Amino acid sequence: MIAANNVRSTNNDPVESSESSPITGTTANGHGSSRLIRQFGSLFQSAAGASAAQNADPAGYVEFGSISDPETQSGRTLGTFAGVFCPVALSMFSALVFIRVGFIVGNAGLYVTLLQFVIAYVILLFTVSSVCAISTNGAVEGGGVYFMISRTLGPEFGGSIGTLFFLANVVGCGLAISGCAEGIIQNFGPSEAGAEGGSIPDGRWWRFLYCSSINTLMLLVVLIGAEMFAKTSMLILGVVVVCLVSTYISFLSKGPLDVAIPLENDLVQNATFRVNGSYSGLSMRTLAENLGSHYGRDYTSHGNEVNFAVVFGVLFSGVTGIMAGANMSGELKNPSRSIPAGTLSAVLFTFLCYIGLSVLMAATTSTFLLQNNFLFLGPVNLWPTFVTIGILTATFSTGLSNLIGSSRVLEALAKDKVFGSLLNFVVRGTYKSNPIAAVIGSWVLVEAILLIGSLNTIAQINSVLFMLSYLATNLACLGIEITGAPNFRPTYKYFTWHTAFIGLVGTAVMMFVINPIYASSSVILCLLLVIALHLFSPASQGVQWGSISQALMFHQVRKYLLMLDSRKDHVKFWRPQMLLLVSSPRSCCPLIHFVNDMKKGGLYVIGHVKQGEFSENDSSNDPTIEEYTQWLSLIDHMKVKAFVELTLAKSVREGIQHLIRISGMGAMKPNTIILGFYDEEMSKDFFEHENSPYRTGEFDDNGIKLFPYRRNDEQKSLLTVDYVQIIDDVLRMKKNICLCRHFHRLDKQMIAKSNHIHYIDVWPVNIFEPKNEDPFDVVSLFMMQLACIINMLPVWKRLELRVFLCESETQAEASTPFERPAEYRLNQLLKSLRISASIHQIPEWNKDMDFPRHRNILKQFTSKSDSNQLMTEENINRSKLYMQRVNQIIRDKSNATAVTFMYLPAPPKVGTIDYKERCHHYLDLLTELTYDLPPTILVHGINAVTSTTL
User: Where is the Amino acid permease/ SLC12A domain (predicted)?
Assistant: First the structure.
């Protein structure tokens, strides 16, 4: 099972029968299309917070900040104003600025309104810090927030948050369309003048028709002329700002007047009675009335009660466009400067605009009018057409941006195969780099959102979804900062973990303040998506994006490993920490699984030695580096919880010494070394065997078998003396050792189902020096501990644990347990150790064999041998005959045994007379002892592992 290989191959199955041999010698990169970036880059200048800037291949790595490609470099044409400020400001104005600020002030009052704007913008400010930190640490590709989170938190969290971010874009589009429809109805419907004479009818389904028409118009624009629209984003922002300035001027200059209440407001209007609201112009009295809260009812949502949470949900839905600039990082001339400067200046600009608008509304407009006519700005404006233009341009551009953004996020999810083949239609439905299928899919979902009807209800859903996306962004940034990853070096210098933490807590709290039901549903949906994607998503298998979970685990594991002090170890908390030395896993799959069962939550390392020399004149790479990933794939295939350690050494013995020393870390070092037995039994390829549960073609590479093993006609490269010396080395290095034989016969499935297999056997007697004290020495207790561990597991739990005693003649004739001290003492010991086992005497042991006569002979082959005593042919033959007789007794008791634990005597000491010959006979006697037994483990423990104390 212990074989040595040269550097080029791993084909020997050294010292192995058919089980484990001890040791042997044995990204997708993607780049975004720069042409595609240029085509859609400007399109996203007007994108709302969710829109995606590029359409790069998300499956690959991103060369963050790299602009070495001339074609990519030539595509970076946008400055801070056009590339960041305009899209962010336009997205943050959205439908809120002309349609719902009055609703907020009229219900919450000026004080609470200002407080809510401060809360919202503080959350946004800290989230902007996280966005700037991530985006200035590397270019953000297609998918915006999805790209950031998936490349930081991994595909499971990235896919789940990306899905919710996609839905946030869809809801945001529905919100903007609803606002646009309100503006149209206000100006051209029956509610415009408070009379029935409007040019278009009004009603729930009429509004749905108008919204659907606007949605379809947006669809056509995206499919046909979106790029031309994107180029006008600065012009659109200019129009919105002019309209907003006209509103400020009107507030400052226009005098008192009555403003009609819309007919749709059936809370105050009816068929016979018309009510107007009053606009007072600048008035301290009006301001005083509007300072406090006057929560009423929302006439657009069937009279639902308004409260702090509803108002904040509406407010926050209008300021969710902070991602629009970061999404443009691939198009910016200087992303590290433009993104922070442009985003922060846009946030400050919109904040000042909203604060000014809120103060002027509170100082000029009655509470009644603010609560009952959300579109009162038109009648009170000096140039009412400006308000109409502002509403239509702001809402239409925001809705269009969200539709574009949602389609790009959906396309990114499809390209990453987050949902496997479910979204293949999106990839196939792309024409001239425009994701037609993704756009149509988004359009259909927007239609479903429009059925909700009420803008304020849609706004709460929109706020919760965007807040969840921002929460994940802060979480990603906080996690990567806590890990201290050296490659996290954002050029944005005003970010710390404190800002990310405040943003994280703020978004989490305000999500539930806005609407606990929507927030809880979103979080639950997110967690379900995380679990589903972890279990089923092809993207979660082997993607090379880098996951923050790995960095966090590294950070925590390192911290706890440093705290784990081997000097504080106590026998009460001992657990096996296994190093299994494997020649070729093809021939020892059952043993790999068995040791995984025996580790009891401890360290499990699979070690492998490649025989060769790493010299200065050798230009080839270290072969263990190339094979390491193959061994990791083996671990995945075997479904065991193990680490892999490979080493290159001049000899297998030297390599094993390396592995024993280097495996593990700190106090987590192997304490038990497991080797396959050195025999001539036929090897079996479990990867090819027809009925093998381990059968797979994964390790056949174009006809070349990975993990080759020694064929039966091949000579072993490890000598008998080397194998015995390895056993001696392990014991001298103060490690427990197990030699495993016949594990190619182990079938756990049969054990679980068979009515014939009933036992796990322990033979604590040292066959080489039999005496009744054996059940109480360290080796025997270690053996019983391992057997007890196996007996705890579900597959093995139904089996009975048996301990065999080999009693003397006087004990065999005793009539009571008290007259048989060995059995009595062992029974008491098992009780104190809480080991449930039955004790079986072997009375025929002394009748068939003469212990005293063989004891001195057998000592010659162990560590207790007399170096001055020469071996004779007669002694060797008598010893083999003795072992055959012992083997026959054990076989007679093992017809229904699943696995057998036996006492392994220490090998001969180095330096004894005829040392090589003694090693050869030592191994021969072990071979005779274990011949034709069930799967057998020869055990030698050196440390106490059991405790009877609390």
Answer: 90-579
DSSP, collapsed to helix, strand or coil, labels residue 449 as helix
Closest C-alpha among 163, 161, 164, 150 to residue 548: 150
Instruction: Give SS3 for 688.
Output: coil
SS3 assignment for 909-922:
CCCCCCHHHHHHHH
pTM value is 0.66
CA dihedral for 612, 618, 622, 623, sign (positive or negative): negative
Distance CA 589, CA 583 (A): 11
Question: Between residues 487 and 257, which one has the greater pLDDT?
Answer: 257
pLDDT for res 764: 87
Exposure of 196 by Cβ count < 10 A (0-12 exposed, 13-18 middle, 19+ buried)?
exposed
Q: Could you give the count of Cα atoms lying within 13 Å of 245 in the half-sphere of its Cβ? A: 6
| 276: helix, strand or coil | strand
CB 82 within 8 A of CB 336: no
Burial 342-351 (b: 16+ CB within 10 A, else e): bbbbbbebbb
**Residue 727, pLDDT score:** 94
Question: What span, in angstroms and rounded, lies between the C-alpha atoms of 186 and 189?
Answer: 6
Would you say 120 and 128 are in contact if contact means Cβ atoms under 8 Å apart?
no
Structural Rg of the chain based on CA atoms: 39
Q: H or E stretch including 610?
A: strand 604-611
> How far apart, in whole angstroms, are the C-alpha atoms of residue 795 and residue 408?
50
- CA-nearest of 613, 677, 684 to 4 is 613
Give the pLDDT score at 265.
79
User: Which one of 130-139, 358-367, 543-552, 680-689 scores highest in mean pLDDT?
Assistant: 358-367
pLDDT in tens, 464-482: 888 888 888 888 888 888 8
Q: Match 């943003």 to its residue by tokens.
A: 503
- What would the pLDDT profile of 30-70 be if each residue is shown by its tens digit? 333 333 333 333 333 333 333 333 333 333 333 333 333 44
* Helices within 833-900 (DSSP H only): 844-848, 851-859, 873-892
Residues in a beta bridge with 805: 841
The set of residues, in sequence order, having a beta carbon less than 8 Å from that of 426 and lying 6+ positions away, is 410, 411, 413, 414, 435, 437, 438, 441
3-class secondary structure, 763: strand
pLDDT at residue 750, rounded to an integer: 85
Pairing of strands 604-611, 643-649: parallel
Give the residue from 791, 801, 799 showing the smallest Cα distance to 762.
Answer: 801
Beta bridge partners of 327: none
Give the span between the Cα atoms of 409 and 55, in whole angstroms: 9
Cα 198 from chain centroid (whole Å)? 57
DSSP 8-state symbol, 84: I
Q: How many CB atoms lie within 10 A of CB 382?
A: 12
Helices (H), 484-573: 497-514, 516-536, 548-563
Structure tokens at 245: 């300035």
Which range, 87-91, 560-564, 731-735, 876-880, has the best average confidence (pLDDT)?
731-735
Number of H helices, E strands in the chain: 37, 16
Whether 740 and 578 have beta carbons less than 8 Å apart is answered as no
| Nearest residue to 642 via CA among 709, 581, 558 | 581
Instruction: Please compute, for residue 887, the number of CA atoms within 13 A of its CA located in the half-sphere on the CB side.
Output: 18
Cα–Cα separations (whole angstroms), residue 208 to 172, 214, 375: 16, 10, 19
| Packing angle, helices 384-415 and 86-93, rounded to 10 | 110
